[in-house]
Design a protein that fits this description.
about 375 residues; alpha/beta; THUMP fold; Rossmann fold; seven-stranded mixed sheet; about 30% helix; elongated; binds S-adenosylmethionine; rRNA processing; cytoplasm; EC 2.1.1.186
Length: about 375
């Protein structure tokens, strides 16, 4: 198994290919990315056997922007016999088990790429899962009780009902969702669908424990470009008080909570009210990515907030390069000010032509000026 299969939103295969090639190169692992436009996945083929496994363990999945999932796969199985697709699949796992210990498997996901054509296979995949799971269990797979995230998940990626990739991911370094997509339910009382974007961002970047610690009724936030209020809704739902900055109309239901101050001002000029400690800044204004990055940097450097989640609208061309350069500049500028930080960025399922970024200031080492 010397290939990685990475899932993405359709149309972002080139960005993902550039990203995985760079990250693999950073680890001294070389190969080439096979890209089929609008396929919803990329195959990165390593030159050396077993190196795909190293990548799946050593590239922190959280650091990949355009990947929804990362799995190690073998060569594409084609012409699977319709009356016995199971045998060749299990044979793949058995063949690789000695090196890889796939008996540590906890879960089976029979998946497709996230394209309309591939989704037509979903019913087939669902039905196929049950007999495949039974057979795998009989052969000693899928019986492992995980401790501390040290198990693996088995993935079958079907391209057609007679061809698939057979693979696995590490449970401590993958997206913990079927097809890499978190299923979120739209709250009927939320003012806009973009509410799901912030909900997914919080789920992805913070996790339950950090969310409870840093998003609660002791915390104040600013939402730049807030109207009609889908993001503010998520913050208020977690008990926070929100300054909602936007010339537009905010949902009356949010104002009725008494947890929102609507500020009809320019988000690029707004500053936190005097003597008010703001913890969180969120921003969903649609603007040039470099301009939004500079604004976020300003807030963090002035200590107007400690933490931020914001969107970067992707340009038409050189999207990966633009994102890299914005995030690099942000990091460099914070370092120059002695601000240690954690940056995470992801092309979320609910994002379209944008990515979502999370920045947390972890500590401040400011040099005292002389005199
Ligand atoms: C994509 S919408 C935000 C949607 C919002 N996050 C929600 O969930 O409902 C972008 C908003 O940014 C606002 N906006 C754009 N430029 C702005 C600026 N310079 N200052 C304040 N708001 C701005 C627009 O009025 C618009 O309401």
């Amino acid at each position: 198994m010397n290939k990685l299969a990475l899932y993405c939103r359709i149309g972002f295969e080139k960005e993902l290919a550039a990203e995985i090639s760079e990250k693999a190169g950073d680890l001294g692992i070389y190969g080439f990315a096979r890209v089929a436009e609008n396929s919803g996945y990329v195959i990165f083929e390593c030159y050396q056997e077993n190196e795909a496994d190293r990548l799946a363990q050593e590239i922190p999945f959280q650091q990949l922007i355009f990947a929804r999932q990362m799995i190690v796969v073998s060569d594409l199985l084609t012409a699977l016999p319709p009356d016995d697709r199971i045998r060749p699949i299990i044979a793949q796992y058995q063949q690789h088990n000695d090196n890889l210990n796939l008996k540590l498997s906890t879960e089976l996901w029979v998946e497709t790429a996230d394209t309309n054509e591939a989704k037509a296979l979903s019913t087939f995949c669902r039905k196929f899962t049950v007999p495949l799971r039974q057979q795998l269990k009989k052969c000693g797979f899928l019986n492992f009780r995980e401790v501390n995230g040290n198990g693996v998940t088995l993935h079958i990626l079907f391209l057609a009902n007679d061809s698939c990739y057979v693979g696995y991911s590490y449970n401590n370094n993958h997206a913990p969702h079927f097809m890499g997509i978190p299923r979120l339910k739209f709250p009927s009382d939320a003012p806009s669908r973009s509410t799901l974007k912030l909900e997914e961002a919080i789920l992805t970047f913070l996790g339950e424990k950090e969310e409870k610690q840093r998003m609660n009724d002791q915390v104040k936030a600013v939402d730049l470009g807030a109207c009609p209020g889908g993001w503010t809704y998520q913050l208020v739902k977690r008990g926070m008080f929100v300054y909602a900055v936007d010339h537009g109309k905010i949902a009356p239901s949010l104002m009725e909570t008494g947890r929102v101050d609507h500020c009809p001002e320019d988000g690029f000029k707004f500053q936190p009210p005097k003597r008010t400690k703001i913890d969180w800044l969120v921003c969903d204004m649609v603007e040039q990515p470099a301009r939004i990055t500079a604004l976020m940097t300003k807030w963090l450097i002035h200590a107007w907030c400690k933490e931020t989640i914001f969107n970067l609208k992707l340009p038409m061309k050189k999207r990966y390069q633009e994102v890299r350069s914005c995030l690099q500049k942000l990091s460099d500028d914070l370092n120059k000010q002695g601000l240690t930080h954690r940056i995470q960025a992801k092309h979320l399922f609910h994002d379209r032509e944008e990515i979502t970024v999370h920045v947390l200031i972890t500590s401040v080492y400011r040099q005292k000026s002389e005199g």
